[in-house]
């Protein structure tokens, strides 16, 4: 019988190799399926960003899609003939994140003292205000007609012209965002957010500035949403208010709830399920929304903590991998 530690290490390497192979095979799929995977990655980025506010800080934000819209229109304004400005994609990516963060701070100040349902209503209203403003600002945004003919994105001289190109970009950004949020979760800031989620009054009584904590959560979350919006605008090469409705905000919130609040692995699982499920239900077009709703209710009732157990999070996986790889292989 072989050494159990070596056997487990071989199993770990096999699992990692399988993941790499699956990710490498995505570009070989037909373009339609690659676009579906691109959509999954976009929603993973958005949901992980929103999870900073909803999952860690305990603040229910129903207007998150507004930051997504801010990023998308930042690209439309700065990389199209709308104002005859054509900045590089990588520059607009950082500008979109910065503008998104600023919008998050502007939203954060008015809601500092709000909690629960009141906070949800105000953030929902903020998202609708942004959408309606975009829809009615004809001279600036072309109103409901949107802005078309956006510049093709290029990264370090390499043009991004196909869903496969955006797949690699989105995969890299998703990994960066997940890793960044994971380390943020384990930091003192992440612990302070979790404490504030449990009881804001106790945290304030300990001398911790909850105002700063909330503004940081909104700003960082909105920055991720803004960056995601920039990539969406460059991918579609067209933006309009119809892409940023309340239904989109609700979908991102549902991804977190269905997958597991405060759990990056759960968010990934939730994004995969909620993006693929409507595609699978194409065979029953007339009843698709009904089946979709039944499945969502069933998951919430049967798995109130989310599809993925709170214990099975990214930190648990990292600890297991580290302990397995660093454990001595005694014979």
Quick structural gist:
The protein is mainly alpha-helical.
Could you describe the 3D structure shown?
The protein is mainly α and 331 residues long. It has a domain at 30-243. The chain has 14 helices and six strands. The mean pLDDT is 87.
Helix-strand layout with pairing:
Blueprint: H1 4-25, H2 31-56, H3 65-78, E1 79-80, E2 85-86, H4 89-108, H5 116-136, H6 138-141, E3 147-148, E4 154-155, E5 158-159, H7 163-186, H8 188-198, H9 200-205, H10 210-236, E6 238-239, H11 246-259, H12 264-280, H13 288-302, H14 314-326
Antiparallel strand pairs: 1-2, 3-6, 4-5
Helix pairs in contact: 2-7, 2-10, 2-11, 2-12, 3-4, 3-5, 3-10, 4-10, 7-8, 8-10, 11-12
Transmembrane segments: 40-58, 65-83, 89-109, 116-134, 165-184, 215-238, 250-277, 289-306
Protein name: ABC transporter ATP-binding protein
Organism: Shinella yambaruensis
Distance between the termini: 10 Å
Secondary structure tally, helices: 14
Widest β-sheet, arrangement of strands: 1-2
Specify the helix fraction band. over 70%
Strand proportion, as a percent range, falls in: under 5%
**Overall SS class:** mainly alpha
Mean of all residue-level pLDDT scores: 87
Sheet of most strands: 2 strands, antiparallel
Shape category? globular
Poorly predicted spans: none
Radius of gyration: 21 Å
Q: How do the SSEs run, as a string of H and E?
A: HHHEEHHHEEEHHHHEHHHH
Number of strands: 6
